[in-house]
Amino acid sequence: MNDISRRDVFRHGATAALLAVTATGIAGLASSGAAAGPDRVATLADPRDFEETYKGKKIKGEHDKANGKHKVHINGKKLGVVQVELPVAPDSTATYTAVISTLSHFDPIPLDEGNNRDGLKKLAKLAVDQLGEQELTHHADHSHR
Amino acid sequence: MGTRKSVAALTATEKANFVAALKALKAQTSGRNYDWFVRTHMDYFNNVNGHNYAHMSSSFLPWHRQYLLELENALKAHNSAVDLPYWNWTANRSTTGPPFTSDFMGGNGSGGNGPVTTGPFAGSTRWRINVSATSSTSLRRAMALRGSLPTTSDADSVMGVSTYDASPWGSSSSSGMRNRVEGGLAPNLHNRIHVWVGGHMAQIDSPNDPVFFLHHCNVDRLYHLWQTRWGFGADRYLPGGGVANVVDVNETLVPFGVTVASTLDHRGLYTYA
């Protein structure tokens, strides 16, 4: 696995997340007068998170910007999701972030906060398309990375 | 020594023997049966002991070479005449031609994204799915809905890359042969086949579809062709040593108990026709 680039991505991502959370927390504190603390920071949702019904199945996605440990549930059952780094081009040191699941392990979907901000939702919908009338089993939560 | 043939060159008897051996391994109640191979592949999608042995790593090709050999030997225990065949997807590109014929692997899923309805693996009474991320107990395929098959030109371009792999030895390696074969880098010879076949082949439990082994046999054949051109020696595998959390040439491939180096020159065990 690309430990070096993932580490860098996570470090920069974590720094950005900390700055964003701090700014939001300060703004919220100023407007509401509520006491800020770890619990309040932890409950802030990622704007890319989703919970909706797609083709008759409930899909829920929670992003983990800091650690890349995103969560997807389909009809309440957990789908194993892994974030990976892939090269943008041959012989380039630049990488892009993508997500794969236990149902689409060979089919990475780009995920970022720009044009690919809906990558996790695309992954969830692809899983529903693949499932058809099926449901996930407990093996869908199998670790893979 | 066994000779691995193209699925398109198999006789009716060879196809029948291969299918029967797969079913005997599936029905086996002790030792490493077919579902052991499914579980093992699932387990080694994960990082084990700090290493990615099977996927997104330098050891992708040697790990699967040994995995195929273990399955082939398990099939030979039921019929010593059986050799693993390969599906050359650059030549056999139809959803109804070899290997997807009714006397061998069977065809597409019902409605293009459902249970396979033809051939010896259609339906849970003929071939029951026991370990899977999805609830169907029947084998499913969704051919050609997503992905595409590599061309001869794609395969040839990869065979011309002389370096086996490159740092950081994972999904983001931007040069070398291994990631071009595995799929992190274009032309992506391996991953896109799983996507193209779809159904169980797209999932973490992809060995539930016996086509998995025909596909990976072709991947191993391409590795063999690369080695024929660039060398079978241990010096051709990278990394050579001293890289933490990456399977170096003299490290053991878990769970098989053999080193990468011992898998590289397979010519005493099998060859390709």
Question: Can you put this structure into words, describing what you see?
Answer:
Chain B: Its cofactor is Cu(2+). Chain B: This is Tyrosinase. The complex is a heterodimer of chains A (145) and B (273). Chain A is built from three helices and seven strands, in the order ααβββββββα. With 145 residues, chain A is of the alpha+beta class. Chain A is globular. Chain B is mostly helical and 273 residues long. In chain B, the strands form three sheets. Chain B has a two-stranded parallel sheet. Chain B has a two-stranded antiparallel sheet with strand order 2-3. The longest helix of chain B is centred in the C-terminal third of the chain and has 20 residues. The two termini of chain B are 12 Å apart. The chains are: A alpha+beta (145), B mainly alpha (273). Chains A and B meet through helix 1, strand 5 and helix 3 of A and helix 6 of B.
Distance between the termini of chain A: 8 Å
Average pLDDT confidence of chain A is 78
Q: CATH homologous superfamily of chain B, by name?
A: Di-copper center containing domain from catechol oxidase
DSSP, total strands of chain B: 6
CATH architecture grouping of the largest domain in chain A? 2-Layer Sandwich
Radius of gyration of chain A: 17 Å
CATH topology assignment of chain B: di-copper center containing domain from catechol oxidase
- Biggest sheet record of chain B: 2 strands, parallel
Return the structural class of chain B.
mainly alpha
Organism (chain A): Saccharothrix carnea
GO molecular function (chain A): copper ion binding
Pfam families (chain A): MelC1 (PF06236)
Family (chain A): Belongs to the melC1 family.
Write the SSE topology.
The complex is a heterodimer of chains A (145) and B (273).
Chain A lengths: L2 H30 L5 H5 L7 E5 L2 E6 L8 E4 L2 E3 L1 E7 L7 E7 L7 E2 L8 H13 L14
Antiparallel strand pairs in A: 1-2, 2-3, 3-4, 5-6, 6-7
Chain B lengths: L1 E3 L7 H16 L6 H10 L16 H17 L37 E2 L24 E2 L10 H8 L17 H6 L8 H7 L13 H20 L21 E2 L4 E2 H5 L5 E3 L1
Parallel strand pairs in B: 1-6
Antiparallel strand pairs in B: 2-3, 4-5
Helix pairs in contact in B: 3-7
